[in-house]
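Kindly draft a sequence, keeping tokens residue-aligned:
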Amino acid sequence: MPLRSDWSDENCPIRRALDVLGDPWVLVIIRDVLHGRGRFDSLRDNLGISEAVLSRRLNATIDADLLVRVDYSDGGRTRQGYAATEAAAELLPVLQHLALWGERHTVMPSGGGHMALIHRVCGNETTQGEVCSACGLTLRPEKMTWVKPWKNSADDLVPAGVLRVATP
């Protein structure tokens, strides 16, 4: 028995979107790739996911045109990693709205802290997912930083050269 229905042929765009994005691993994989963690080992380690599950989910995101394989050099060897397509980059407002919703409507665990979404163009924190609440400009992955105090770090989304657009 399948775990869920196939909604790929549905008229409802929400069902079709959930057919692609409904697996919880997909959005956190996209989040990490947008943060520049496009190497298999980096994804596995940061997500705490098994290699088999990660491999299946990466293949599914490639099939859905959310990620593409890209070559990178590793100590003289050419290896393959993953980069976001424009379709994945367009998920930024969804991810940011989820983060903002989670800040407002879920209980923060002990040791957590407020995650700030910083628009690097104006330098201000935004309280919206699609346009900056401070300056009104459209938010793009390469212009965002997520400050995560529980990690003592700031994650820049899509460092230079990471975003790729898949060609048909």
